[in-house]
Amino acid sequence: MKPYIEARQVSKRFGQHQVLDKIDLTLPAGMIYGLIGPSGAGKTTLIKSILGMEKVDGGTVQVMGATMPNRPVMAKLGYMAQSDALYETLTARENLTFFGKLMSVPKDKLSQMIDYAANLVNLTQQLDQRVSGYSGGMKRRLSLAIALIQDPQLLILDEPTVGIDPELRQQIWAELNKLKATGKSMLVTTHVMDEAERCDYLMLIRGGVALAQGTPADLKRQYKVDSIEAVFLKAGRMQDANHGNR
Ligand SMILES: Nc1ncnc2c1ncn2[C@@H]1O[C@H](COP(=O)(O)OP(=O)(O)OP(=O)(O)O)[C@@H](O)[C@H]1O
């Protein structure tokens, strides 16, 4: 079976600024892949390049065996962007209905999927409230519910848990793991180190360069430290030292 995502040597520049430098990423079925890095590292640009929303300057990207953008593949994936794109004057239910129809969720399944997705993100009680009255965290949760509405095989989630309280974050991660157990895959960006530890595989990215890639356990072993945060700091110092030597 082809990997869900296969990116080879992806490079991207904005003007003179090299934002991605020869990135390789392979996401097979049944895996949670974490992209972790500081603000401006290139995580969102990598995701947009994978989705075909940014044109790359070098390298190749395939999603489910297709070059993006590709409509049939888009229908099989759920994408949660970093900024919420919601209809503020509509209720959450109306938003979910709109996006469900857009994603061609069968009519007889739509209300069941809305209940499932709303329950997952703990919005069942507020489903019929207008989004304009939602807090930032509630909007994040609704965006996640929308990404799940067509029961996608592949989820691409850009900072899905920003503004979400720790208890609900735990629940969301538990659900992501359940989805994974059914063969679905997720590409998730995060700043939060304990979330990085929950991923099956990580790419540490800084200044558009993949500093390190591996399972959390492998990375800690390789860098001889006991946390992903420490791996990051050590890999970053090594990157700085190499730059200094140039
Ligand atoms: N359309 C654009 N035009 C010019 N520069 C851009 C554009 N989009 C992103 N950049 C630059 O590319 C770099 C990487 O941005 P990107 O949003 O991919 O980082 P990130 O790792 O997702 O950061 P954050 O965690 O803050 O979202 C940044 O320096 C950003 O300013």
From TrEMBL:
Question: From the Swiss-Prot or TrEMBL record, what is one GO molecular function term?
Answer: ATP binding
> One Pfam family this chain carries?
ABC_tran
For the ABC transporter domain, which residue ranges apply? Answer: 5-232
PROSITE patterns assigned: ABC_TRANSPORTER_1, ABC_TRANSPORTER_2
Do you know which Gene3D superfamilies this protein is assigned to? Answer: P-loop containing nucleotide triphosphate hydrolases (3.40.50.300)
* Keyword terms: ATP-binding, Nucleotide-binding
Q: Which InterPro entries match?
A: AAA+_ATPase, ABC_transporter-like_ATP-bd, ABC_transporter-like_CS, P-loop_NTPase
- Is Kinase included in the keywords of this UniProt record? no
Protein's UniProt name? ABC transporter ATP-binding protein
In its UniProt entry, the species of origin is given as: Lactiplantibacillus daowaiensis
